[in-house]
Amino acid sequence: MPGxxxxxxxxQRLATALRRSDGSQEFVKLLRGEPCSPYAGFGSMxxxxxxxxxxxxxxxxGDLSNFIxxxxxxxxxxxxxxxxxxxPVKTAIDDAVSALLPDELEALLADLGSTAGxxxxxxxxxxxxxxxxxxxxxxxxxxKLQQGAPEDEWYWFDFLHYRRxxxxxxTMWRMARDAGDPDLMRYCLGYASHIGTDVVGHPYxxxxxxxxxxxxxxxxxxxxxxxxxxxxxxxxxxxxxxxCLRIGPEDVPRPNSIAGSYYSRLCEFPDKRLPDKLSELFxxxxxxxxxxxxxxxxxxxxxxxxxYRLWIRWFERATSIGDALAPTPPPPPGAAAGALxxxxxxxxxxxxxxxxxxxxxxxxxxxxxxxxxxADFIRRVLETIVxxxxxxxxxxxxxxxxxxxEALRLIRWLVYQVHLGLWQIYDEARFALVLxxxxxxxxxxxxxxxxxxxxxxxxxxxxTGGPAAAFSTYxxxxxxxxxxxxxxxxxxxxxxxxxxxxxxxxPLPHFGVYPDVMIDAHTGDPKADAFFFCEQPYPPDPSDTxxxxxxxxxxxxxxxxxxxxxxxxxxxxxSEMLDDLPNFNLDxxxxxxxxxxxxxxxxxTDPPVSPAPIESNPVNVNYGPTx
Length: 627
Fold this sequence. Notes:
The chain is mostly helical. 52% of the residues lie in helices and 1% in strands. The chain contains 23 helices and two strands.
């Protein structure tokens, strides 16, 4: 992470960036020889797909992914109904009114009300699973590092972000090159772009989150979702994208939204299974890179393929299921229908007595409170739909006595209330799940304040009710967090104490600005090359200003772009260092430019301690020979 959309945006522009680097023609030729290669696209996901490893996360990822799949299964028929089915129904209703066929009109309306009620109730039930249970489905992903567990109990998802990160990719590159396999070589180029994007992108994400993933994993996921949505809107698709996306006649592409982007096709292999040669390469490189140090239980190729298959299933749903657009209001009823309109308004007024607003525009900052408010709003909308249909059926004869033009205007306006109500149910429930981190934001969500500002720019992180993000008080300690009970911590910048010793969140030019600066705005500062060669994170003697220590390099260079933005830095890693990539901590933990580290005094096989050392303050770390 950053999220999959940012990683793909970088990877798809990588060949162009490499053309500007000396000695990169081999890599440019590989990427341009197969511009739609799923090997390169999936490679840009790095180890992130292992978040979907049933082998490691078991019921936790099963529960989370099943919930998300059920949400998409609930959303899809609502989109189809609102976007496609309801228009023929409206036409049939118009015909029945014009032909003065009250029985046919009543049957059409009853079917419309039944369908709308069923779809709306399903959406409410899915939202209600969270509201009533108050279970945070992200809690079980609590990183083992943060818990103080020995490294052989960690998840590979975390291990590959914290241990020999560059060496693993360079090992795969050597194996792929020795085999003379251009597909596997493209995978390695994509993977190297993941490393480059993580090294400079995670500090940017962390500056908004308030700390690294290990202490703020739910908020981290939420912020990445919003950054992905922002980047999707900001960057136009390269010309090569459209051919790679294989847009067909049944597809409904949406140029500025993740839903309807079909980006999963950039990573999709035949039959949605990993090729054997790729899963075998991954496992062979794991065993060679980590075989001499404690590590999580070995994967086999089937384990890697299983994680990919679940991941691609999720990514396909996230990028192919589109969106329902708000219906266009018809002209209001004419004066002749005034009495009927007044009667209708009186019928539904009691439904909305004492109601608050929905959650789409902001408000309070308890996620459970927001979910509950939206659920209440949806219940009232469902009642309104039912009451609207009942009112039309009860007054069919009165409506048909109006002049035809007036009758049609009134019927269209009342049916619009049903159409609008179903869309409101969809949109409010969908946005509640966006705030929970379960779904990507849609394009229109980027206009919703305070969320759309607070989650993409550290300068606005306070807008959801927490303290202001400050460069000088980073990183913040983990907040109290539990599986059950009311919590809003992922929505609010943490107000916890600073985790000492001090560290840099991200370069000052990347702090308090929008994500494009992190993605492609800056080339690196040559002085920041010292990050590659640091011997330890902090000098034992604070008066020692040697560049052998990461924190000294941070302070000496943080006023500039340091390693640069994701795209040029990724190109540089590939063109200059692919054979021996540096071992950066890919989570940007504990600060900017840190290499892979281990806690002082804690060996890789030490058992958990209470309290875990990483929960203490200060958190002292070192660059040991095996990390």
